[in-house]
C-alpha cells in the first residue's frame, strides 16, 4: 500500500451497497480555490456598466477618446504625444486661472483718485467672452454685459421717467438694438452706464467710463474723414450722448464744443426736419441741447426751430383759477400763458398714464415739456 497521503470519503446514507471512496495525493494535498463572491460589496457606489462599456470592458479610458486633427495634414498622435498635449493644456489652464485671480484682486483693492479732467488709463485685460461668435461690433466682455444690464434695468428709469409710466423702455425697444450694429454707439452706452456709477461715488466705474468714452470719440473722429458715415443717425446720437455725459459730470465747456460739432452735422444733414420720421433720435438731440442750456440759461443751439411761433393775442388760454387771478393782476405775456397751459396739460395727462395703452400720451407729454423749455429759452426777453 502506498504511504502517500490519502482521504476516505463516505456517503451520508446508510445503504450497505455504497462503500467509501479513497482519494490519494501523490503530489501533496489538493489546493481548492475559495468560492468567488458574486455581486457588488455592501456600500459600493460603483455603477453597473452599460452601453459601450459592456461591449468592450477591457478598453481603457485613454483609448475611448481620440484627438481630432483639424489641420490640412493628417498625423498619427501617439500616446506620448497625447500625454504631452494634456500636460501643456493643463499648465496653460492653471496659468490663466492665476492671472484671472490676480486681476480680480487688483480690481477690488485699487482705489482710483478723481481727476479734474479725463485722461486715458491702462485697463486690465479681461478674461472670458460673452460673445464667442463675434456677432457684436466690439469684443464683448462680462463687465460690459453687467453695465448694459444696469442701464436697461435701472438707469433708464431716470432718463425716461415719463415713458416708464406707459410701460415703454426705449433702451430695450430702440437704442440697444441700434447699438448692437454700431461700435461707437455701443461704446457710448457702456460709457454712459459707467458714468452713472461715477456720479454715485462708485469709483470702480471710472476706468470703464474713460475707456469706452475715448473709444467712442476715436471712432467718431475716424468717421469724420468719410462724409457719408459722419452723417449717420448713430453718429449724431453718439455725439449727443457724449455731450450729455460731459454736462452731467460738470464739464460745461466741453459740452459746448460737442454741441457746436453736433449742430454743424445736423445742418449738413438738412436740419432737424430731416429727422421728423425718427422722433427718438430727434428727442435725443433736444435733450442734449437743453441739458446745458437750461443750467446756463442760454439760448439753445437748435432754438431757431421754436422762434417766432408764439400764439396770437386773440387765442384763449384756459388757465387755472390761481393763474387766472395772476393774469388779471399782471397781464401775463402770451408766451408765459402758453407755457402755463402746456404745463397744466402735462400734469393732467400724467395722472392718466398707467399702462402700455397710453404710450402716445407719454410722447405728447414729452413734446409739451420740450417745446415749453425751448420756447422760454429761445426768447431773448427771458434771457436778459
UniProtKB/TrEMBL annotation:
Highest taxon, organism lineage: Eukaryota
Q: Where is this region: Disordered?
A: 25-61, 96-121
Q: Which InterPro entries match?
A: Fun_TF (IPR021858)
Q: Where is the composition biased (Low complexity)?
A: 104-116
What this protein is called in its record is Uncharacterized protein
Looking up Pfam families in the UniProt record yields:
Fungal_trans_2 (PF11951)
Q: Where is the composition biased (Basic residues)?
A: 34-49
